[in-house]
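Entry 14. Structure prediction run on the chain below.
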Amino acid sequence: MKLNTIAIAAGVIAVLGAPVWGQSKALIDAAKKEGQLTVIALPHDWVNYGEMIEKFKAKYGLTVNELNPDGGSGDEIEAIKANKDNKGPQAPDVIDVGLSFGPTAKADGLLMNYKVSTWGTIPNDVKDADGAWYGDYYGALAFEVNKSAVKNIPADWADLLKPEYKGKVALAGDPRTANQAIMTIGAMALANGGSFAKVAPGLDFVSKLNKAGNFVPVIAVPGTVASGETPITIRWDYNALANRDKNAGTTDISVTLPKTGVVAGVYIQAISAYAPHPNAAKLWMEYLYSDEGQIIWLKGYGHPVRYNDLAKRNVIPAEVAKLLPPAAGYAKAVFPSIADQDAAKKYIADKWDSVVGVDVVKK
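Output returned:
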């Protein structure tokens, strides 16, 4: 099922309501008294989180403790569970996870209800009615390719099986726990006659890649792409585009949406029910969902959830607006439902070892 309020071809998200962002002195003072915010799994080159964190620190004078920057959504959830009774530096205050992780984390009592002051401009399709979680940005899965190590750029999923890509194809996460990798297996399924509800063809495709010797069982990060260790990886377009820009002048990186099996995914924000710094967490959310925070995500190629509201009020700087890639490539993008993502996540976790039979490891 597609999120029908999201108009990919136009590159916007339909939203309702007027901006009412504002923060009380009481909240700011309470956050400053706590003195710190603990985040988890936020690489600085992921939708421009580096700038987001630095500007938040400068604006409010808080310390930001950054845990496991290369972790996946599953790692974030496990960190909350493991630190329920721990108010120390290993307990995250906030999480940024794949859409399917929100309802389950709420059901497990892991999330705090909090509605940001711009709540009315977040589409109902991507937010919990009680405020336990809410969409923040979305992107589409793309091929990120180091052109120095790969002569011919793959145009579609089937191309990845070609002998010329032996020892070159990697995933950007462990598909048993990381949302980005789970969604990639779902996209492979779509391109091979399956779906997120019937994701077996996706696992079969990875098995074929592995048997052909094309699959590299290493979690691809910008450094392994640049070095040529994982010269072809599949990751969210905003991460791939940011990596392309970061390496301009040293490594020539191509970013391409596949011709088939184009999958888009929404990520969500939430506050831990066990947050050691709950007021700092609320202040962080207010900043993320302010105009300033949304534009910072946009600068990192993420499509922010309040995009349409920003565009309607003409507050997006022209130099930022031109950064987004052409909308035409996103016209066929599929947004899998939460139910379908949950089904895919469980199937992949249960069957990966028996079907693919190789561990995907972090270097």
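The CA atoms of residues 23 and 228 lie 46 Å apart.
Filed with the rest of this week's runs.
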